[in-house]
Amino acid sequence: xxxxxxxxxxNPAGRSAPAPRRTSRPSSLWAFRGALSxxxxxxxxxxxxxxxxxxxxxxxxxxxxxxxxxxxPVAVLNAMLLMVQKQNLLWHAGVSTLRVWTAFALAAxxxxxxxxxxxxxxxxxAALEPIIDFIRYLPVPALVPLSIIWFGVGESxxxxxxxxxxxxxxxxxxxxxxxxxxQEYVEIAYTLGARTPQVLRDxxxxxxxxxxxxNLRITLGWCWTYLIIAEIVAADSGIGFVIWTARRxxxxxxxxxxxxxxxxxxxxxxxxxxxxxxxxxxxx
Amino acid sequence: xxxxYLAFDGVTKRFGAxxxxxxxxxxxxxRNEFIVFLGPSGCGKTTLMRMVGGLDTPTGGDIxxxxxxxxxxxxxxxxxxxxxxxxxxxxxxENVLFGMRYRxxxxxxxxRARRDHYLDLVGLYEFSDAYPNKVSGGMRQRVAIAxxxxxxxxxxxxxxxxxxxxxxxxxxxxxxxxxxxxxxxKTVVFVTHDVEEAVFLADRxxxxxxxxxxxxxxxxxxAQLGAERPLELRDSPEFFRLRNAVxxxxxxxxxxxx
Lengths: 284, 258
Ligand SMILES: Nc1ncnc2c1ncn2[C@@H]1O[C@H](COP(=O)(O)OP(=O)(O)OP(=O)(O)O)[C@@H](O)[C@H]1O
Ligand SMILES: [Mg+2]
What we know:
heterodimer, A: mainly alpha, MetI-like fold, 10 helices, B: alpha/beta, six-stranded mixed β-sheet, four-stranded antiparallel β-sheet, 36% helix, 24% strand, binds adenosine-5'-triphosphate, binds magnesium ion
């Protein structure tokens, strides 16, 4: 976009009397639903987190809390470094990440077409919706015994549990994204001579894409929740396994280090996907 | 007897129990005529227009284009909607090019040439690379018009395309649209609520009753005001008189409860 479009919406009378510049007042941070620059947002986010860490560290040092229950951030960090050296923490993190992504990719590859079909053809939606809604409300942990009976305690059980936790949620989200595509877009394409597969591919799918990517990002996060359950139940590797083992010996710093690693992976992935979203959908 | 260009022949339409077009509706439209549908809200104007586009099918009777009953939608009859009229993920130029995406009879080079021609015609050439959300509402409607023209539509079906625009931009686009229609010799079916817009644009204004829609009046505007429609026409006493007459008809058509 080289040319700047004219500011047609600008009020013609506004030139002589500039609008009050709210942003320059210090109180504008607290303007109801006011704007906040990207830089400021990052600063506030990092600042708050640091503040919390400091308070936590101070509380631990002052002996306000029993260190078996709440070890200080420094202790957690030390434990983490030690675990990286002695317990292959990074490898475990890699194993968990791989499991999440494999199961997630499987779930997405199936949920996207099914969800699209459900909204494109009412009959598919009518047929599948009750079943999906039923399974969606089953808590994944309740299905652990059944999946162990079916798949044993190997890798497939974990993948199955993760898939179970994401597929059914994702299907309905995808179906919703598709339903929300304005009918006008579809009809424009038809009046330009498109056939149904072309309308689906060139217009409907393209129109739902930003919402779809957003929903994929959100469900990926849920996948991590189920991962820990799967790894606690039946695993000899992965972060969940590490956390559960440390718990057995009451090594609270190690338990927390494991939790923090998951948090960091989640944070980084989410930020990367958000950035990719912004880049891919600049037109929004 | 020659076949009329576009013909509504005994068309009726009901949605379930709802009679939208009750009495069989007959109308013939000549090639290159600018027809405006005017009527109370909910009377069935959009429905009638969508049937011309092949997006709805009549319950009874049929609609024929050059003697051939209209089936499903195709590129000869193009739609311009009031909202969501262009694709937000494509630039202005890409939107216009999209109009020819499914035309296999044109080479890529021809498509690009047509794209540029119609971008120029609607005055959007310099905004080629802008995304729709970065241009004004009026420009977005012009994108849709250019896309429809580039697609090769002979009949333009426009459902309150300027409904969301402010008065000034509306007037400007009306003058432009009328010019394009005359230069490019298109047949237009245009739906609006706005009497002034109807009289300014139309060769013929068709006034409908409230639902179930019935033809109340068929006013030959060109016979009274001529085919040229400069902006100044709006200030002339003839325009005013006609506008008031149509307004009166519309009031009667809408009934007392409106
Ligand atoms: N697909 C549909 N199913 C059921 N009823 C419909 C459908 N489409 C339109 N209707 C009904 O048909 C009637 C006529 O609708 P239509 O949109 O044609 O009116 P209109 O004259 O264009 O109104 P407006 O001026 O408000 O746009 C309305 O009562 C509307 O609710
Ligand atoms: Mg309408």
